[in-house]
Recover the amino acids of this structure.
């Protein structure tokens, strides 16, 4: 089956439960192209009953998936990676029409997804434990990593294709089975297309399940995850606002949560930085996917001696970014995901300009395509510069600094701590500054947005808990301590 006919005819999508496309016969909800509201598909509006069926299937599939020989699992992951690459053009088209992703962004995601599949394919062969010396004569102690059981995932609409793999593939690589609830805004590229790929690759029924839901119905599905004893962990990528609601509920249910949330990612350009290189890094970091990624650069602190040269070079490069329909491969800036996103950025640009900020470029919108925007001289109380809340769109604030210590302090004056960038020719100084950043990720001489499948991405503070890549073994397994005594015990009574 092909879920979506790329010639433009919309289809009705089903859930994917226990290895089968399951039409619950219930209501559907429309999925629309953010560029022009054209119907992409009608998706199944799932209920708690669908989520229960999916959790039951995942729980039933768990013992044999957990026990599967590493080589058998490896072959499945490698096949899935090949399918992802074979279907590249179709995926590029899907991400453009469903999520407004440029070709630059969708091919980036496809590359990362195939890489992550191939890396995870080998993890089954890595050591799973340690032997620990015991003080008790004749006792041997071992610790072994065991999968948790069913991991439920919420996948986001923005880096939909890659971030969905990240949500379920990592737990699966460590022997868990999964149920995911894709974003209502892009359910195909954040989950259903993955089901097609895994089905073709031959993954056993029930190891991966998808239940889609209409806007407003997420809580009922989440409640199934929280109340089901089989679900041992909830892996959420989204906003910190929703994460707080889910985290409170998880606390009552005593469920483990992994959270990949927002960021207010700063770049610091020191006075000895390569200006040309900094302009390229910031343009990419701030404007990839029109600023709708949690790792986009939101604010640049640039040494005053470089400020004017940097801003004029940056503005020139940013003005040259083609905007419009992302099915045009030359377009870099496609539409924002919905009207709310347009209203948010527009209100914040207006707020800053009203307070006296300088609009260097951008600030205009056509439909939902918002021009990439640079603001300088932004007063400290303007919403877009406070660091309290990320503006999820193509808006970058640039500020000059006189003293790098002050810039380092100001750059961390935010509740978030996801990614940061430091540009300098002095690598030792760059590393020393990186060391002092309270952030999950710091790149020296690279943009805030510099993901690779193998690198552990994750935040501190309000940016979340947990890491991607192999380090996620700590989130998606638990340690079993086993001891064995070969001598009679000595007891005090
Ligand atoms: P974004 O703003 O990036 O769309 P959100 O954090 O609002 O991110 O939503 C992410 C996911 O959380 C979506 O799949 C949505 O369905 C789900 N969600 C939102 N509100 C709730 C809620 N009250 N209970 C459970 N899930 C929710």
């Amino acid at each position: 089956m092909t879920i979506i006919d790329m010639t433009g005819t919309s289809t009705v999508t089903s859930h994917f439960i226990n290895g089968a496309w399951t039409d619950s016969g219930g209501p559907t909800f429309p999925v629309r192209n953010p560029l022009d509201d054209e119907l992409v598909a009608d998706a199944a509006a799932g209920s708690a009953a669908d989520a229960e069926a999916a959790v039951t299937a995942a729980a039933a599939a768990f013992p044999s998936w957990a026990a599967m020989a590493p080589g058998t699992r490896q072959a499945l992951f490698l096949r899935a990676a090949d399918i992802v690459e074979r279907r590249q053009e179709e995926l590029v088209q899907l991400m453009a029409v469903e999520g407004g992703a440029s070709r630059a962004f969708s091919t980036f995601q496809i590359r990362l997804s195939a890489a992550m599949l191939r890396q995870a394919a080998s993890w089954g062969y890595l050591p799973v434990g340690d032997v620990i010396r015991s003080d008790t004569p004749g006792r041997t102690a071992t610790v072994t990593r065991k999968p948790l059981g069913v991991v439920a995932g919420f996948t986001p609409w923005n880096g939909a294709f890659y971030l969905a793999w990240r949500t379920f593939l990592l737990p699966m690589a460590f022997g868990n089975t999964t149920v995911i609830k894709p974003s209502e805004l892009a359910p195909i590229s954040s989950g259903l297309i993955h089901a097609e790929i895994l089905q073709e690759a031959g993954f056993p029924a029930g190891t991966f399940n998808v239940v889609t839901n209409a806007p407003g119905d997420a809580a009922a599905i989440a409640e199934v995850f929280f109340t089901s004893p089989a679900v041992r962990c909830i892996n959420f990528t989204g906003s910190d606002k929703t994460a707080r609601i889910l985290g409170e509920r998880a606390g009552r249910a005593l469920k483990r949560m992994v959270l990949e949330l927002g960021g207010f990612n700063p770049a610091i350009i020191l006075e000895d930085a390569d200006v040309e290189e900094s302009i390229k890094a910031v343009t990419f970091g701030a404007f990839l996917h029109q600023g709708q990624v949690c790792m986009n650069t939101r604010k640049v602190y640039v040494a005053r001696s470089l400020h004017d040269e940097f801003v004029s070079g940056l503005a020139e490069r940013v003005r040259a970014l083609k905007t419009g329909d992302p099915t045009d491969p030359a377009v870099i800036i496609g539409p924002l995901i919905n009207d709310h996103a347009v209203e948010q950025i527009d209100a914040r640009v207006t707020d800053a300009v009203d307070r006296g900020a300088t609009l260097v470029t951008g600030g205009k919108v056509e439909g939902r395509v918002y021009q990439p925007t640079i603001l300088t001289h932004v007063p400290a109380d303007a919403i877009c510069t406070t660091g309290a809340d990320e503006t999820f769109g193509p808006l970058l604030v640039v500020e000059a600094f006189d003293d790098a210590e002050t810039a380092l302090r100001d750059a961390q004056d935010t509740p978030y701590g996801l990614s940061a960038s430091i540009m300098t020719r002095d690598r030792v100084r760059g590393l020393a500054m990186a060391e002092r950043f309270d952030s999950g990720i710091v790149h020296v001489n690279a943009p805030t947005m510099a993901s690779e499948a193998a690198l552990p991405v994750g935040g501190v503070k309000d940016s979340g808990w947990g890491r991607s890549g192999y380090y996620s073994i700590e989130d998606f397994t638990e340690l079993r301590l086993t001891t064995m005594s070969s001598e009679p015990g000595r007891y005090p009574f």
